[in-house]
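Structural prep section.
Before we set up the soaks we want a predicted structure of the protein with magnesium ion in place, mainly to decide which crystallisation condition to try first. Input record follows.
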Amino acid sequence: MDFQELQKLLVANALNYGEKYNVKIDEDFAILKLYEELGEFSQAMLIHRRKSRPEKHLPEELSKEEVAKELADVLGMTIVTANLLGIDLEKALNKKWIHKDS
Ligand SMILES: [Mg+2]
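Run finished without errors. Recording the tokens verbatim:
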């Protein structure tokens, strides 16, 4: 699957979420949701690193799975946000991270 296909599927998923829960998927939603997901990722990392209340601790493999899920949410919402803002994220990644001189 290439980046464009992935983006299409993620945007379709976000739109389905919007329809299901009667939420308008616009730039404001996407940016706020991205912050929510970053918070969830942060919480998952705190639990994974055992820097949370002991009752939240999970076995290593489970806590790592939770970190992976929340990181996937962060990436998904980043891609949805880029799409809503009309940004070609693949091009931006190439320019900013890979071909820094061009
Ligand atoms: Mg999440």
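Observations: The radius of gyration is 16 Å.
Flagged for discussion at group meeting.
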